[in-house]
């Protein structure tokens, strides 16, 4: 009998707790429609380990720096930015898993990253299912923001870097017009959407400038000995070899090409950026090697000078172009949250799409109808000490 009374009492207590909870109790009231939130959660889906960790870490560092600056200055029009960060391990499947977790469990309002094109493409289903904006700072493949089957812009996918067709055109233009080259070979990573997209755009543009592609060879990301295919490429006698790939492989390809006696021009893209190429190769091997990029830390622009100074002081290294793009992406997101005045992903998406005239360290950012910024590119080379150096700014034709 006593046990029945105890049980009955517990039922009443639980019912009372339920009623209090239902009436709000001590729980903070939900934000009223139109009321500005105190903070907004931003997801970071980054390659912090794995094959391209150097890129993801650079982007994550820059975003951390930018959000610290923004919050210290009062936030995005008074809204504090909270970062929820995960490591996608440089894998497509994990990039999808992280995006799903951020959208469904962490309930972030916007996601920044992944860094690579393949990983960014893997998150497209999440952006569409949860109607959440995804901003890749560095994914250059055209398919990220445009559906290749329909030609329609993906409404929730954005980028702050220029796209592969632009970058391939700039590299081809520099080879044909600035270096006066008539023939080229292409050495492409067969596992990379980034690399294959750049192969196509370079080939089309170089031929459009009157050049000839004398051979196309491929490798896979696991390769470390490239001598066999390089021998075939060199046998085709190209004046330049275009290598649209990442620095881990590029550093070895350059070394082995020079070892085999190739003295022609070596051309690349933003995947070359970082320290690996200079660390692996002698200064002599890097002469007559050039790559397109998004910015130069040697710029005299005060905004770039401040960014380089603050990043170097905080992280102990000069920021790469990918870090600069991550920094700009953080400010694009903050600008959109400020204009939306809301944590609503759709409102933030609309504000990102309307980005216009935002001055960043990689240039002035205005997004076009396909959610791509149109910018100039810089051409970088290597000085006599084997260090990256600014060559010139290239405007596409």
What attributes does this structure have?
397 residues; Rossmann fold; 7-stranded mixed β-sheet; 5-stranded parallel β-sheet; 13 helices; 42% helix
Detailed description of the structure:
The chain has 397 residues and is α/β, with parallel strands linked by helices. The chain folds into two domains: 39-162 and 300-366, 3-Layer(aba) Sandwich (Rossmann fold); 164-293 and 378-394, 3-Layer(aba) Sandwich (Rossmann fold). Helices cover 42% and strands 18% of the residues. It has 13 helices and 14 strands. The strands form three sheets. Strands 7-6-8-9-10-13-14 form a seven-stranded mixed beta sheet, sandwiched between helices. Helix 10 links the parallel strand 9 and strand 10 (289-293). It is globular, with a radius of gyration of 24 Å. The model is unreliable at 1-31 (pLDDT under 50).
